[in-house]
Amino acid sequence: MIDTKHIGYKLAPHTVDVEKGQLRLFAKAVGETNPIYLDEIAARDAGHAALPAPPTFAFSLNLMNPNPFEFLDLLGVDLSRILHGEQAFRYHAPIYAGDTITIEGEITDIYDKKGGALEFVVQEFVATNQDGTRVVEMSNTTVVRNPAGGDA
Questions:
Q1: Hey, which of 19-23, 67-71, 147-151 has the most confident mean pLDDT?
Q2: Per-residue pLDDT tens digits for 32-50
Q3: Is the pLDDT of residue 14 over 90?
Q4: Which of 29, 36, 85, 98 is the most exposed place for a label (fewest CB within 10 A)?
Q5: How far is CA 114 from CA 9, 54, 78, in A?
Q6: 102 has which bridge partners?
Q7: Distance (Å, rounded) from C-alpha 24 to C-alpha 40?
C-alpha cells in the first residue's frame, strides 16, 4: 500500500519554454484542425498574440520535466503498474508560443479501492508564465494496479 504520509509532498518545480513547433505537433497529434493552432497568421487574425496552445496541451508540459515520474520514485511504484486515471484543467489565461511556463505540483490525495487492488494518487499543479500570470491549474489522477489483495 502507498503510504498516505506523502500527501502534501511538493514536487520539484520545473520550467518549460513553449515552442511553436511543439504546439503544432501536439495539435496534429490530437486531431486539432482549427487553423489558429497551426498557422500564426490565423492565430493573429483571431486576436491571439502568437500561436496558442491547444486545449489539454498543458498536461504535456509535465512530461517535459527532467524527472516526470519523480512521484513514482518517491512512492516506490513501478511504472509498469500505472494507468492514467483522470485529468482536469482550470484555465486562467492562454499559453502561447514563446512563453516560459513554470509548473509547481503537489500530491494532494492517496486512496485505494477494491481492497487495495487499485490505489489512486491525485496531484494538483499550478502553471504560471514568465510574467507570473497563472495560466492553468491542473489535476491528475494516477491509478496504481496491485496484485490481488493489494500486496505490492
A1: 19-23
A2: 999 999 999 999 999 999 9
A3: yes
A4: 29
A5: 25, 36, 20
A6: 15, 128
A7: 10
Cell of 77: 511504484
CB 27 within 8 A of CB 19: no
Strands 10-17 and 82-91: unpaired
Give the integer Cα–Cα distance in Å for 111 and 100.
Answer: 34
How confident is the model over 8-28, as a mean pLDDT? 96
**Distance from C-alpha of 83 to C-alpha of 105, rounded to nearest angstrom:** 19
Instruction: Cell numbers for 76, please give them.
Output: 516506490
Question: Could you give the C-alpha distances from 27 to 15, 135, 138, 145, in angstroms and in order?
Answer: 21, 19, 19, 31
The domains found in the chain, sorted by start residue, are 4-17+58-150 (3.10.129.10)
Cα–Cα distance measured from residue 116 to residue 38, given in angstroms and rounded to the nearest whole number: 45
Residue 149: pLDDT band by 50, 70, 90 thresholds? low
Return left, alpha or beta for 100; rule: phi > 0 is left, psi -120 to 50 is alpha, else beta.
Answer: beta
